[in-house]
Amino acid sequence: MANEEFTPEEEPVSFTDKRKIDPESGEVRGEAGASEEAAQGSEGDALSQAEEILDAAGAAQDADTAAADEFKADLLRLQAEFTNYRRRVERDKEAARETGVNATVASLIPVLDDVDAARAAGDLVDGPFASIATKLDAALAALGVERIDEAGVEFDPTVHEALLRQPWPGVEAEHVGQVLRTGFKRGDRVLRAAQVLVSTGE
After folding, report:
1. pLDDT single digits (tens) 125-149
2. Staple partner for 194: which of 87, 102, 163, 183, CB 3.0–4.6 Å?
3. In terms of Cα–Cα distance, which of 75, 102, 115 is closest to 190?
């Protein structure tokens, strides 16, 4: 036992690597940390910028949608106004045409009275004037002009003007016994009422 040597216990050795350059990567350790922090900061800035861009894009899209809706509403309003204007113009044009035709026919009524008188006297049985009278009647018929000259029908104050009331053979009361002057109408418009004798019965 006296020959045994005393060997002290070895304490574990520890050291801190303070080298500024990483022997494995060759990078400067202090700059690497700074680069990582800078990268993280840059990433945060990029996210913030992306959010701002998206917000701005959303606001612009909302503004564009509102402008498009307003433009569409204006377009529909203008279209409705134009449609109403076109209908009004067509209606006024047709009314002006009807007024012009009625005025022209009304101015020809005295001529038609002369034609009827000549026909009743037998002057239009043959000859050139008979042909002219026939063509005139055809032209007026094409315009929708009708004569009011039928006897025996019920008296209608809207198309008849009663000049006389007396008994008339073969005609019942309140019916036209005789047409004294022919009337004319075009559609629902009476150009001149027929002057008639109204029967009071037999």
Report:
1. 888 888 899 999 999 999 999 999 9
2. 183
3. 102
